[in-house]
């Protein structure tokens, strides 16, 4: 059985270690204010 061309690339750990300078962590959350308003926030952080 031959390995598909898409699986012939680097392992997941190797891929992540070479891409660490461009990886972003994102999170979506809400903040309730004192005036009973709800703010929706999308935050991101570069590694």
Structural class based on helices, strands and sheet pairing: mainly beta
Strand order of the largest sheet: 1-2
The succession of helices and strands, N to C, reads HEE
Which percent range describes the beta-strand content? 35-45%
Oligomer: single chain
Largest sheet: 2 strands, antiparallel
How helix-rich are the residues, as a percent range?
Answer: 10-25%
**How many H/I helical runs?**
1
Let me know the number of strands. Answer: 2
**If you average the pLDDT, what whole number results?**
82
Architecture overview:
The protein has 47 residues and is mainly beta. The chain has one helix and two strands, in the order αββ. The longest helix has 7 residues, at 12-18. The model has no long low-confidence stretch (mean pLDDT 82). The N and C termini lie far apart (39 Å). The chain has one helix spanning 12-18, and strands spanning 24-32, 38-46. The protein has a two-stranded antiparallel ribbon. The chain has one domain (9-46). Helices cover 15% and strands 38% of the residues.
Compile the SSE list and pairings.
Elements: H1 12-18, E1 24-32, E2 38-46
Antiparallel strand pairs: 1-2
Summarize the model shown.
The chain is mostly beta strands and 47 residues long.
Features:
47 residues; single chain; mainly beta; two-stranded antiparallel ribbon; 2 strands
